[in-house]
């Protein structure tokens, strides 16, 4: 396996992807505004027995974008095309926020492709409070520090960064893209672990409970005092251990999952 990044042509864009390790394919999908390399804060190297596949999603990092507004469904189609180009018919996956919602599309569009997945800070749909939050975020003033951080991650200039910041308004105004009913979620075949902070300001906890009820083979890990994407910092080692245990098929109670 290669450890350096490569650029692949996927659905009309250039997608940057890093691969490392050998074994079962494990796809890692980052959150909105982030890049694939953010996962190095969780996994310092490829876990034993896994072939990591870590893309920069459309319009992020070193990947290019089209001029059309971003949708989670399009991101899912990119992921499916990527795995097909790598000749990977079936895989496990971990997605965070935007990456998690992308995986909801992947696992309902082609349920047989996903063996197991971990969804961090996911949502089946956007309540009006979430849409209002997104619209405010899209037009929030940015500091020099904000720009500097984004320039470190995203290499295609200011227009790329502005498009990333504008994404949340596109998401807020799209009523079709994120509209997962219990019936749609029931199509998911993957063993699914939902990880959710009980103080997530973007996606209320009841959304995680709704997904846990609707997805057939699912478990829910609520992180006390956790906000949005509550898996970094001091939580990172615990998350990595518990997520990998789940993906390896360890029963939830044996994995000593916090409640």
* Number of strand segments: 8
Low-pLDDT runs of 5+ residues are none
As a percent range, the share of strand residues is 15-25%
CATH architecture: 3-Layer(aba) Sandwich
What does this entry look like structurally?
- The protein contains 8 helices and 8 strands.
- With 259 residues, it is α/β, with parallel strands linked by helices.
- It has a single domain, classed as Alpha/Beta hydrolase fold, catalytic domain (Rossmann fold).
List keywords for this structure.
8 strands; globular; 8-stranded mixed beta sheet; Rossmann fold; 8 helices; 259 residues; alpha/beta
Write the layout of secondary structure elements.
Blueprint: E1 5-10, E2 13-20, E3 24-29, E4 50-55, H1 72-85, E5 91-96, H2 98-109, E6 114-120, H3 128-138, H4 144-153, H5 158-173, H6 182-185, E7 191-197, H7 205-214, E8 218-223, H8 236-247
Parallel strand pairs: 3-4, 3-5, 5-6, 6-7, 7-8
Antiparallel strand pairs: 1-2, 2-4
Summarize the model shown.
The protein is an alpha/beta fold and 259 residues long.
């Amino acid at each position: 396996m290669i450890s350096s990044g490569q650029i692949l042509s996927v659905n009309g864009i250039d997608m940057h992807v890093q691969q490392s390790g050998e074994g079962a394919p494990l796809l890692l999908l980052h959150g909105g505004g982030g890049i694939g390399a953010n996962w190095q804060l969780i996994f310092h190297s490829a876990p034993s027995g896994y072939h990591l596949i870590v893309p920069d999603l459309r319009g992020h990092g070193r990947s290019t974008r089209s001029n059309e507004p971003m949708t989670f469904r399009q991101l899912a189609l990119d992921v499916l095309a990527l795995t097909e180009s790598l000749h990977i018919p079936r895989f496990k996956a971990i997605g965070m926020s935007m990456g998690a919602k992308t995986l909801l599309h992947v696992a309902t569009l082609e349920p047989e492709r996903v063996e197991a997945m971990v969804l961090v800070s996911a949502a089946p749909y956007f309540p009006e409070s979430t849409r209002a939050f997104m619209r405010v975020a899209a037009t929030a003033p940015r500091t020099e520090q904000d720009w500097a951080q984004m320039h470190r991650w995203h290499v295609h200039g200011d227009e790329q960064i502005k498009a990333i910041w504008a994404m949340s308004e596109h998401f807020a105004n799209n009523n079709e893209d994120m509209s997962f009913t219990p019936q749609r979620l029931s199509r998911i075949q993957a063993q699914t672990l939902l990880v959710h902070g009980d103080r997530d300001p973007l996606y209320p906890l009841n959304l995680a409970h709704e997904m846990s009820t609707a997805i057939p083979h699912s478990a829910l890990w609520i992180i006390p005092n956790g906000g949005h994407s509550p898996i970094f910092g001091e939580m990172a080692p615990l998350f990595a251990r518990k997520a990998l245990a789940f993906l390896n098929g360890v029963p939830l109670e044996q994995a000593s999952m916090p409640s």
